Hints:
- The chain has eleven helices and eight strands.
- It is an alpha+beta fold.
Amino acid sequence: MNKAYVGDGKVELIAGGGKVYTDIAARFVRSERTLKEIIASDYSKELVKRIINSGHEAAVEFDFFIFGIEGYARVTEVQLVRKRLASYMIKSGRAEKSGRRSFDIVIPDNIEGFTAEKSLPVNLFKLKDGSKLDEYLPAGNDEVILEYGSKDIFQLVEEWYNTGVDQGLPEEDLRYVKPQATEFKALIGMNAHALRDWFRIRCCKNAQREIRDLALKMLNLCKESAPDLFADAGPNCVRLGYCPENELQHEDCRGKIMTKNEAIKLIKEKMAGN
Length: 274
């Protein structure tokens, strides 16, 4: 079993960035020039900036980015595929590996070592030689302490999984016993419009810790490879200048970033004063 921690995930930019096509796409809307002339036009940083600032971001959908990620938990996978238009290729959990599958987990470091004292029906458990576990324990002693994040819980699941493989159960069924801490690998494809929208939600401090880590790493790669497309990309407050979360605003931002309601109030007061 391999163990990693939330925040250790790796992100690689496989394709995208460098040459930007947003300005070419934008020219098609109003230009009277020929197709060849439009394609041959020099890149216009100012045109890209105007398109983004106007909020008419259809043209940025012609710039596509592909990322490879690993070291993230299934918890994040569920959130990753929930919203935004994107393409995903995720490492299969059903393919038969004949017991050679790597049982990798990703956990938050702050819950490692968490223990829980639980009563288990030990008389129901049998050892490999057929004897029952309670034969080796004092009468009435069914208390065990299980540790999360060390080996107890995950080792039990891994051994259960491997026993199922040994008994010929299909791995596509055995994967149902795996915890959400199971690590996954994926390819993610998004155009710049979807990415900018995704960053607004997932880079926010209200986002779950691990998916925010993923989003911030992807954002940094995008800013490096296509700075004109992602100069103002990030959480909603960066793009809007205020926080639309209002009463749900993250505690770290309170008093530092204006909420939407506060912004509307100031605008109304300013307009009334004029």
